[in-house]
Amino acid sequence: MKILVAEDEPISRMRLARALQAWGYAVEVAKDGNEAWRILGESTGPMLLIFDWMMPGMDGLELCRRVKGDTDKRFHYVIVLTARTDMQDIVSAIESGADDFMTKPYHPDELKVRVRAGVRILQLQTELQLKASHDELTSVLSRRMVLEMLDREVERARRHAQPLAVAIADIDHFKVVNDTYGHPIGDEVLRQTASRIGGSLRKNDSLGRYGGEEFLVVLPSCEELAATEVAERIRSAVSAQPIVTAKASIHVTVSVGLATAPGAGELGRDALILAADHALYRAKTAGRDRVGVGTKDDS
């Protein structure tokens, strides 16, 4: 866990950082609120924050308001340090977005347990976010989240005049797997299939469970040729080796329907999915275990 310390007084900043490092935390320091805000703008910025109230440029409470008011950023846990002890000051800090409040001088043991509590809350928040955004069985994105991702990529494609592709991968004869081996084995097939699909994707691609045995893949900045190569990797990765389960080794294949918006995201989300679905249907009717590529008429 990395902690950001924003404290303008050099000795206090050094002591606080050393104590946190002694307890096993990685520490990043800022000498004022403006520097702290810049650090928080980085995608890998710390999630647990310890701010001094009185700092030049931007004080701790204004920093709290900015952090908590930016809903696009990750959840942060904020501890405010101050020499103020009046009850109204405590209320002001909490109303500004602080999650905890400590008065100076503080006892190191008190700081230690308060930081530990903040870490635990962040861990629970991460677990809740993961459950809300990911499919519980396969651990890929949930249907809602992958569709939201597709919405964002459609807008990005339009804004930057970039291509965008969508693929729907459907496990062939999945009902037979469930009927023959039972649903627990079917669940294992779903998990391993999702893992194989995920391992076939590029760094910026997104994978979500779209329906029972269907997976939706979002391929940003991907023209038809490159998207077809990704779709073929998906198909090949799933069928290359049998899926080993407690009852049997099961040969699994997928059919993949692919749709692209070549120029500037000309197709919206629904049109892309419809085109991919039509292409999937053609792949199924042509014999399964293959990639179908959408045409202009599909949307």
Summarize the structure.
The protein is of the alpha/beta class.
Structure in words:
The protein is about 45% helix and about 20% strand. Helix 2 packs parallel to helix 3 (about 60-70), helix 7 (about 175-180) packs across helix 8 and helix 8 packs across helix 9 (about 225-240). It has a five-stranded parallel beta sheet, sandwiched between helices. A five-stranded mixed beta sheet has the order 7-8-6-11-12, with helices on both faces. It starts with a strand and ends in a 6-residue tail after the last strand. With about 300 residues, the protein is an alpha/beta fold. It has helices at about 10-20, 35-40, 60-70, 85-95, 110-135, 145-160, 175-180, 185-200, 225-240, 270-285, and strands spanning about 1-5, 25-30, 50, 75-80, 100-105, 165-170, 205-210, 215-220, 245, 250, 255-260, 290-295. It has two domains: about 1-135, Response regulator (Rossmann fold, 3-Layer(aba) Sandwich), CATH 3.40.50; about 145-299, Reverse transcriptase/Diguanylate cyclase domain (Alpha-Beta Plaits, 2-Layer Sandwich), CATH 3.30.70. Helix 10 (about 270-285) links the parallel strand 11 (about 255-260) and strand 12.
